[in-house]
Amino acid sequence: MALPPVLRGGFRPFFFSGAAWAVVVVVLWVCALSGAIMLPTRFDPLAWHRHEMLFGYLGAVICGFLLTAIPNWTGRLPISGSPLAGLWALWLAARLALLFSATVGSTLAFFVDVGFFVVLGLVAAREVIAAKNRNLPIVVMILLFALANAIDHGEALGCIDLGGLGWRLGLGLVLMMIGLIGGRIIPSFTRNWLMKQGATTGLPGQPTRFDLASLGAMALALLAWAAFPDAQATAILLLAAGALHVARLARWSGLRTVRDPLVLILHVAYAWLPIGLLLLGASIFMPELPRSSAIHALAAGAMASMTLAVMTRATLGHTGRPLRADGWTTAIYALVTLGAALRVTAHWLPIDYMRAIEIAGTAWAGAFLLFALTYGPKLLGARPDGRP
């Protein structure tokens, strides 16, 4: 019996469900923030919103990406069929258990939610170790992500008090994944596109010691921020890391890709990373600079833009479609960028702050809704060329 298309590759159920969940989370958060509803979770509304965007939405995207990338890394068969359905069901159960934790209890939500990442990490480890592949550090980061998730549960429920260590550690790990994986794919895709346009000079090259130094500086800065978020030494490390990643991005010739949104969005998404690092470092020295602006530059900006860039490109490529951004895809990129920019600058806009948040949330959620509507049929349906 042939598998339904949605269970033929990990990116299919997880990219679609992740995008749909992002819309749900933002809508519920904005409604709760305005006082229109009360969320049925034991987390306070802000903690739930933060947790679900980081470990819920992003957890789905990470899972979809890993299950799709690992066969390319290892040459082994992809996870599909019943095992894929079971992993997806575990992710969905975690989302519902946490949302309704005031009813079903926080213990169930904890074990299902953390358990999802432990299972994902073990599955990935089995594949990578069996193939003796070099990507074992990615697996370690998934297991650390599970630890950060567990800490965030404990802090949100008042079991431990580590000053927000859980979500900061989780966000830091995500940013390191963006730096590590983005540093591989952005110069590679840019180089390929420029060569197709006939360019022979100024092409991005392979990662160098400078890239390793940039990643090392960011790892040190984010670790310091997770442990000592208000220390001046942390601010200096964040500012230095931000400056290094400005220079790193400048070496990838992003301005030359303006004619191809599918490549350009990768550079725009990565640009949010140094912007966020610089804002975060500056906010420690200047308390009048809202810390939330820096966090949203990293989350609503770098995290969301990069995941949408990867999801759209991977979906097109793995469903047998041309790697070309149509009008809908370009609109997705424009909306997520606009939403992030409005959220980061909300404190300084000449309109009511709450209204600015609502507009930013609408634009940002609109990007994910548009992805679900336009890419959903591609993810849930068969390839147009009839291949498995």
UniProtKB/TrEMBL annotation:
Protein name: NnrS family protein
InterPro entries hit by this protein: NnrS (IPR010266)
Keyword RNA-binding: no
Superkingdom, natural source: Bacteria
Key words of the record: Membrane, Transmembrane, Transmembrane helix
A Pfam short name: NnrS
TM stretches of this protein: 20-41, 53-70, 90-123, 135-151, 171-189, 210-228, 234-250, 262-285, 297-316, 328-349, 355-375
